[in-house]
Amino acid sequence: SCYSFEQLCINYANENLQQFFVQHIFKLEQEEYTREGINWQNMNFIDNQEVLDLIGVKSINIMALIDEESKFPKGTDRTMLNKVNRTHGGHKDYIKPKSDQENSFGLNHFAGIVEYDIYGFLEKNRDSFSADLRQLIHISGNSFLKGLFADDLSERSQDSKKKGLTLS
């Protein structure tokens, strides 16, 4: 079965946790053993840095392409998939759809291959800051919180002025 944008985000977080584990348990420990001259047997492990780079680390990663396509007024899930296919179609951890009619792609995660249905990717990525949360921060007396979300609050304020609304 195919999974959604949310699952891609969850799997990306899991990939990061796996890499953190690999980095600290295997890579750094083995380097330390070597430095200290400890006799040990090399342990094989899966290094998932390449799939992390593909999803969200390298400059033209999948998440960056989703973000970019989300900003185009005429961007669609299909145009996003076409862009991802063109950019990453040759990557060993990216599985292109079998035909141009398919609305999915696959990724070879450390835990195995996962297929993602592109339906709703752009809309979910565009999901804006909730009006309720924005209002709560606006009425909050916490200046640190207001500072964190100053851009969101000023953006909302500009939108409200255009529509003749107020935030208070």
Structure description:
This protein has helices spanning 5-35, 49-57, 62-71, 77-88, 121-126, 131-139, 143-148, 150-163, and strands at residues 2-3, 94-95, 104-109, 112-117. By secondary structure, the chain is of the alpha+beta class. The protein has a four-stranded mixed beta sheet. Helix 1 crosses helix 2 (49-57). The longest helix is centred in the first third of the chain and has 31 residues, at 5-35. The N and C termini lie far apart (46 Å). InterPro entries: Myosin_head_motor_dom-like, P-loop_NTPase, Unconventional_Myosin_ATPase. One of its GO terms (molecular function) is actin binding. Keywords: Actin-binding, Motor protein, Myosin.
Helical fraction: 55-70%
CATH architectural name: Up-down Bundle
How many distinct domains? 1
Q: What gross morphology would you assign?
A: flat
Order of secondary-structure elements: EHHHHEEEHHHH
Strand fraction: 5-15%
Q: Structural class, please? A: alpha+beta
Q: Point out poorly predicted stretches.
A: 160-168
What is the CATH topology descriptor?
Methane Monooxygenase Hydroxylase, Chain G, domain 1
Intertermini distance: 46 Å
Q: Tell me the Rg in angstroms.
A: 21 Å
Largest sheet properties: 4 strands, mixed
**Residue-averaged pLDDT:** 87
The count of β-strands is 4
Counting DSSP H or I runs of 4 or more residues, the number of helices is 8
* CATH top level assignment: Mainly Alpha
Strand order of the largest sheet: 1-4-3-2
